[in-house]
Amino acid sequence: MANALLSIQVIPKTNNGEDSIPLVDEAIAIIQESGVKYQVNPLETTMEGELSELFGIVEKVNERMIEKGCPSVISQIKILYKPDGASMEQLTEKYR
């Protein structure tokens, strides 16, 4: 079972005020390709997995934004770390 949940909101800076949605789509694609369980929400994406693996995905997302020409990127993250197991379902089951 996963030991962490990590929610990320990626805010890429663009050079000339271009639309950042294609960059956010790129960030979500990296998460999809990683194979971790995830859920896209309106203002952030939540991932479920091992903490070190999730940090690696955050690093890849930030690096990709720079590769795409962003001079900088802000990644706001929230983490739930629970060594004996953490899941999105556990936190939200009473609302479903």
Topology:
Elements: E1 4-12, H1 21-34, E2 37-40, E3 45-49, H2 51-67, E4 73-81, H3 88-92
Antiparallel strand pairs: 1-3, 1-4, 2-3
Helix pairs in contact: 1-2
Q: What does it look like?
A:
- It is built from three helices and four strands, in the order βαββαβα.
- The chain has 96 residues and is an alpha+beta fold.
- The chain has a single domain (4-81), classed as 2-Layer Sandwich (Alpha-Beta Plaits).
- α1 (21-34) runs antiparallel to α2 (51-67).
- The mean pLDDT is 96.
Overview features:
four-stranded antiparallel sheet, Alpha-Beta Plaits, elongated, 4 strands
Overall mean confidence score, pLDDT: 96
Q: What is the approximate shape?
A: elongated
The secondary-structure element order is EHEEHEH
How much helix, percentage-wise, in residues? 25-40%
Which strand order do you get reading across the main beta sheet?
Answer: 2-3-1-4
The count of domains is 1
CATH topology (fold) name: Alpha-Beta Plaits
